[in-house]
Structures are given as structure tokens and as C-alpha cells.
Amino acid sequence: MAVKIGEHIDLGKFPLLLAPMEDVSDPPFRYVCKQNGVDMMYTEFISSEGLIRDAAKSKQKLDIFEYERPIGIQIFGSDIESMRQSAEICTLAHPDLIDINYGCPVKNVACRGAGASLLQDIDKMVAMTKAVVDATTLPVTVKTRLGWDDNTKNVYEVAERLQDVGIKALSIHGRTRAQMYKGQADWRMIRDVKRNPRIQIPIFGNGDVDSVEKAAAWRMEYEVDGIMIGRASIGYPWIFREIKHFFETGEHLEGPTIDERVEVCKTHLIKSIEWKGDKTGIFEMRRHYANYFKGIPNFKEYRTKLVGLGDHNEILEVLEEIKERFKMHTRTRSSIYR
Ligand SMILES: Cc1cc2nc3c(=O)[nH]c(=O)nc-3n(C[C@H](O)[C@H](O)[C@H](O)COP(=O)(O)O)c2cc1C
């Protein structure tokens, strides 16, 4: 049966979602993920205060493109009225849905009463969610964690109460706030939520999926409606097509050739320049090169070259050189190469 968010967003049988990631899930990166089969994507998180103040950085994150659909804009904040207003602003940007971030653990978000901090005040979280739901005609979804810490793993209650005020899907990262990104994600409570007979909305599992094998095993073991992938897609957007191919055929797709790696990296660079301009586009792309060529021995020299160049034609030339130099490099799949 197809997974649906609200009445109109049909995600097919078992969707793969690109996790919202600050400084990563921007339009250039989303472009290459979309090319590689992701079913649904989110923007980076956007500060509700920033949106209201009309801050350029926040406003730029509202840029979404037709080919990206279905796409959600993710917002965070600590003030209910600001969240309500920013839901109105986001609605005007015409995403397919609005997602609320109740999962961010980093200090300057969670310690200012936003993100995962709302896991300590469920009443406020519920009121905030209701305000956002009431402020928009779009479906509202939520992304959160298991709880604040080991003593307060309250996602079971959170799921029920947020469903009651109208959210249309819930993504759960199998860690607490206290864990930040340490240890291993534990999906058992995600399964508990999914098994709750009161829960009707799709439940997406998130945390540590980095291979076809894990996606296949955890799909069965934890009974989720879809999987959200973050870090493993950075520099490796092929993970989406590899997992999808396996689910559709039961067979493993080979990993990308060196030519494919170069071509996708180039596309990412070109889109980056198109969207951010030459200077910022080239600068912000620097963080991605090592990821695109991870696992390739003796790549360092080329990475140093790539991050040292400021002219996009020269960068494109070096990327072509990489094809030649590493053409004997064999294909690798996500699980093997990570
Ligand atoms: C660089 C980075 C930025 C992130 N930014 C966001 C964000 O803006 N909003 C959000 O809900 N989660 C954010 N996260 C958390 C991810 O969405 C995801 O929940 C987490 O990385 C676990 O999934 P993974 O193991 O597949 O990466 C971020 C994670 C990383 C690594």
C-alpha cells in the first residue's frame, strides 16, 4: 500500500527520504539526490525568528524548485507566535509540506528553547504544533528524537499527542538529545510507536542507515513506513538508488564508476554556482570533494588541488583529470566503501 502524507502526497510503497541537514541539504545537493532516486526531501532547518525578521540567510533557504517535489520546508523556533507566523511565510513559498524540527540537539538551538528542547515540555510542543497546523493549509509533519535523555524517552506519548493535533507524518531519529550523535541509533522505540494501534500516520525511521543491507534489515525489523537518510548520502547520493534497486529487484546494484562520481560532483558544483554565485558556490563546494571520492586511495593530492582553486573552469579540468587518473578504480557500493 502506498504511503501517503495527508491526502495528496503519495510517496509510493516504501519511501526513502533525504534528512534535513544544515549546510548540506540545499538545492544543489538536493538536485543530485533527486537524480538518484530519493522520494522526498526537506530543506535545511530555517529559524522562525530569522524568517520573521526577513533575514536573508533564512529567506534564501525557502528557495525550492518544481523538480524537487515533494519537498518540505523545515522550521524551528522556541516561540509559538513566531512559529505560527513563519508557517504562514513558508506556505507562501509553496512547498508540499511544512516540517517542524523538535530534534536538533546543538546548544544554540536546544538551549534556546527550540529543537529537541521541546521534548522537555510536551504541552508547549503540542501547542506549538497546533499553532503551525492551524496557520497553514499544507500538511504539517514533525521530526524528533526518542526523548531528551535516557530517563525521559517520551516519543510514544509525543507521537499520539502530535497526531491528535493534526500532524500528517512523524520522523524519529533513534537517539535522545543527550546522545547527540554518539553511540548507535536504537530503533526499538520507533517500532513501538509504529505498533501503537492508535497511530495512523506514517512513521519514518532515521539514524545510522548507511547501506543497502541495513536498510533492508531495519525495514523488516522495525516495521517503519519509510527510511530517512542523512549522513550516508553526503558525497554518496547513490545510496538512494542502490536501496531502491534492491527493494525493487532483490539484487545489488553496482556502485558508481569513477566517471559517475566525477559527473555527479560536477553537477553539484555547477548547481552550487548557479544558485549561490561563483564565489560562494565554489567556496561551499569545497567541503564536498573529499566525500565524493572517499575510499579512493591516494586522492589527497587532488583534493588539495580542488580546494585550492577559485576558478570553476580549472576545477572542472581537475575533475576530468581525476577520471583519467583513477579509471582503474573499481566500483564500490555504499556499505563496502564506508
Ligand atoms: C551536518 C548535519 C546537519 C543537520 N541538520 C539538521 C537540520 O537542519 N534539521 C534536522 O531536523 N536535523 C538535522 N540533522 C540531523 C539529521 O537530519 C539526522 O536526523 C541525523 O543525521 C541522523 O540520521 P543519519 O544517521 O542518517 O545521518 C543534521 C545532521 C547533520 C549531520
From TrEMBL:
Gene Ontology molecular function: flavin adenine dinucleotide binding; tRNA binding; tRNA dihydrouridine synthase activity
Cofactors demanded by this protein: FMN
Domain DUS-like FMN-binding: 17-324
PROSITE patterns: UPF0034 (PS01136)
One Pfam assignment: Dus
Entry binding sites for FMN: Q74, K143, H173, G230, R231
Top-level taxon in the UniProt lineage: Bacteria
Keyword tags: Flavoprotein, FMN, NADP, Nucleotide-binding, Oxidoreductase, RNA-binding, tRNA processing, tRNA-binding
Enzyme class name: oxidoreductase
Reactions this protein catalyses: a 5,6-dihydrouridine in tRNA + NAD(+) = a uridine in tRNA + NADH + H(+); a 5,6-dihydrouridine in tRNA + NADP(+) = a uridine in tRNA + NADPH + H(+)
Protein role: Catalyzes the synthesis of 5,6-dihydrouridine (D), a modified base found in the D-loop of most tRNAs, via the reduction of the C5-C6 double bond in target uridines.
Family: Belongs to the dus family.
Name of this protein: tRNA-dihydrouridine synthase
Species this protein is from: Sphingobacterium corticibacterium
Lineage: Bacteria, Pseudomonadati, Bacteroidota, Sphingobacteriia, Sphingobacteriales
Gene: dusB
